[in-house]
């Protein structure tokens, strides 16, 4: 019996019936609705926002949050499979879902009041309210503690000043989860579109995540009511807790991108005839593709165990760092190798490899660069911070 070339260790057999059903549903959506349009959307630098109602109808927004807020109440492995199948289509689609779910809905659920949850989460689950996450600043990057955006108390309101950069969904967003320095430490605020002094400016000229909206946010004496402050967390542990949730999804997503590239190159090398035989019949091509399958298999086993740890409440941030580092590096290397095997054809977006390779330049950078995650693991091993 032939093995599945994209699942050599039958990782699917480790999944529950519900987890397999989730994967199959999202895989169909990706095959039927994302892949046919995503190359053109990437070329045009356009996020296909027409897909948002369908994404919401499938229950993919805030999928791990409780059903009482209109969410699906799925486990962590199911959320990971959602990310994997969406990124098999494009990192930009997975990024949209990650930001909405892990960086916007999660902090409202985890750090907000019941009134805030009821006010925003059901609409966000339906895709009627889009969120973005404002942490990164132009000068901050990997050092979020070096935050300049500030909020000052003024009666019953807060007055917000500063800016954020590299914000996914920024110009789409109806609300922004913004982290700011206060006299009582870093705190989170829900800033609503249309509040005077709040502006979003889309970042153009991108060569990566072109089918995604990336923006800068500006706050000029934006008056935010106390009812919009997330009261149940203070300090960097608030935004870092959100990032751990999102990074978990990112550990799964690049596997989908890698599988898409391998699938494409397997088909191409069998049909491409050079020197009177298919490229797939050469030792060099088989060794390269075998190496891809090996690395994909390792990544698959890594994330399933990570998901089981998360569902058991035992997942540690260092484990997420290790998986993001490993799986992003795996995927970007595979995408580049596949581009090479496609030859000249590989430089066009008629093939997926160059698009995935370019997207993964962002994925390997955002929410902790490769170096940051290496240093997180190093700190765990030695007990010494080298940041």
TrEMBL record:
Catalytic activity of the protein: glutaryl-CoA + oxidized [electron-transfer flavoprotein] + 2 H(+) = (2E)-butenoyl-CoA + reduced [electron-transfer flavoprotein] + CO2
Cited PROSITE patterns: ACYL_COA_DH_2
EC number annotated for this UniProt entry: 1.3.8.6
Span of domain Acyl-CoA oxidase/dehydrogenase middle: 132-222
Pathway involvement of the protein, from the record: Amino-acid metabolism; lysine degradation; Amino-acid metabolism; tryptophan metabolism
UniProt KW Oxidoreductase keyword: yes
One Gene Ontology MF term: glutaryl-CoA dehydrogenase activity
Cofactor needs: FAD
Acyl-CoA dehydrogenase/oxidase C-terminal domain location: 235-381
Residue ranges occupied by any Acyl-CoA dehydrogenase/oxidase N-terminal domain in the UniProt entry: 16-128
BP GO annotations: fatty acid beta-oxidation using acyl-CoA dehydrogenase; fatty-acyl-CoA biosynthetic process
Keywords from the UniProt entry: FAD, Flavoprotein, Oxidoreductase, Transit peptide
Coiled-coil spans in chain: none
Family: Belongs to the acyl-CoA dehydrogenase family.
Name of the protein: glutaryl-CoA dehydrogenase (ETF)
Organism of derivation: Lysobacter antibioticus
Gene behind this protein: fadE7
């Amino acid at each position: 019996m032939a093995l599945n070339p994209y699942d050599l260790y039958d990782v699917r057999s480790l999944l529950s019936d519900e987890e397999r059903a989730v994967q199959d549903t999202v895989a169909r959506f990706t095959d039927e609705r994302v892949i046919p349009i995503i190359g053109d959307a990437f070329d045009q630098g356009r996020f296909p926002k027409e897909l948002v109602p369908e994404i919401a109808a499938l229950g993919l927004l805030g999928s791990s949050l409780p059903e009482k807020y209109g969410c699906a109440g799925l486990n962590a492995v199911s959320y990971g499979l959602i990310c994997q199948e969406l990124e098999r289509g494009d990192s930009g689609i997975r990024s949209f879902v990650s930001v909405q779910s892990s960086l916007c809905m999660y902090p409202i659920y985890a750090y907000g009041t019941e009134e805030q949850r009821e006010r925003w989460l059901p609409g966000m689950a339906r895709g009627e309210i889009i969120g973005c996450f404002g942490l990164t600043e132009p000068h901050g990057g990997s050092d979020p503690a070096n935050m300049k955006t500030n909020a000052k108390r003024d009666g019953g309101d807060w007055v917000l000043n500063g800016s954020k950069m590299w914000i996914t969904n920024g110009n789409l967003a109806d609300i922004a989860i913004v982290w700011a320095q206060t006299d009582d430490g870093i705190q989170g605020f829900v800033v609503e579109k249309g509040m005077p002094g709040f502006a979003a400016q889309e970042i153009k000229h991108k060569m990566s995540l072109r089918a995604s909206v990336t923006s800068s946010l500006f706050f000029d004496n934006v008056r935010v009511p106390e009812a919009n402050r997330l009261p149940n967390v203070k300090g960097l542990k608030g935004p870092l807790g959100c990032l751990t949730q999102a990074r978990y999804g990112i550990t799964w997503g690049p596997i989908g991108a890698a599988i898409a590239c391998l699938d494409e190159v397997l088909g191409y090398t069998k049909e491409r005839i050079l020197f009177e035989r298919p490229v797939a019949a050469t030792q060099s091509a088989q060794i390269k593709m075998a190496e891809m399958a090996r690395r994909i298999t390792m990544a698959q086993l890594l994330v399933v165990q990570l998901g089981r740890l998360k569902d058991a409440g035992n997942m540690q941030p260092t484990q997420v760092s290790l998986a993001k580092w490993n799986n992003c590096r795996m995927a970007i290397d595979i995408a580049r190798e596949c581009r090479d095997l496609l030859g000249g054809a590989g430089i066009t977006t008629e093939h997926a490899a160059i698009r995935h390779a370019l997207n993964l330049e962002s994925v390997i950078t955002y929410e902790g660069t490769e170096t940051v995650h290496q240093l997180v693991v190093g700190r765990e091993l030695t007990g010494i911070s080298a940041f």
